[in-house]
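Budget justification aside, the reviewers requested a transparent look at the raw inputs and outputs of the sequence design task funded under Objective 1. We therefore reproduce one unedited record. The lines immediately below are the structure tokens for a 182-residue chain.
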């Protein structure tokens, strides 16, 4: 990908996201809320706030559903299309070892992406159930905090130098524990 195309994509997505979020925030300011409420959550998000609305939120919820579907589907389709091309390129590799290494490298990204998209889709697109707030709270914690923490670990574990350093550290710790306790 050329630098200019990458820059246009980043600027385009930032602008589109900013306009969409400004529209949702504008409509959210028109919603009436029922008295003072303490939000039992990690962060103040649209889905958390809307639970305490007293006025009619149907138009806002419809807008949010449409926007969420588009914002979830667009990057998902981009990832699927990209990986289709990547898999087609990998299948053209003649050596089995090369194909295995390429698939191994791509698999960690696909796992993290699949988890992320599944959670986002579940939180923002799937209709709400009776225990929605508890599910939302735990899933939002996972996608806001756990995935960003495990992503570098997953990619780091793929690095050969890191694996060797980890093995060395683990064997040194094992020797230390044996020497101290025995």
């Amino acid at each position: 990908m050329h630098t200019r195309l990458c820059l246009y994509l980043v600027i385009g997505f930032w602008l589109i996201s900013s306009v969409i979020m400004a529209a949702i925030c504008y409509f959210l300011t028109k919603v009436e809320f029922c008295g003072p409420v303490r939000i039992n959550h990690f962060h103040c998000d649209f889905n958390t706030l809307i639970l305490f609305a007293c006025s009619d939120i149907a138009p806002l919820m419809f807008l949010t559903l449409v926007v969420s579907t588009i914002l979830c589907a667009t990057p998902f389709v981009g990832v699927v299309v990209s990986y289709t091309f990547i898999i087609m390129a990998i299948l053209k590799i003649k050596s089995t070892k090369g194909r295995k290494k390429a698939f191994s490298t791509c698999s960690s990204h696909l796992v993290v992406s699949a988890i992320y998209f599944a959670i986002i889709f579940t939180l923002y697109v799937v209709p709400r159930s009776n225990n929605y707030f508890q599910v939302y709270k735990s899933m939002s914690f996972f996608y806001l905090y756990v995935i960003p923490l495990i992503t570098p670990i997953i990619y780091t574990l793929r690095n050969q130098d890191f694996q060797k350093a980890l093995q060395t550290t683990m064997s040194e710790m094992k020797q230390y524990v044996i020497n101290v306790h025995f």
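Residues 90 and 99 are 6 Å apart (CA to CA). The chain has six helices and no strands. Computational costs for records of this kind are itemized in the attached budget.
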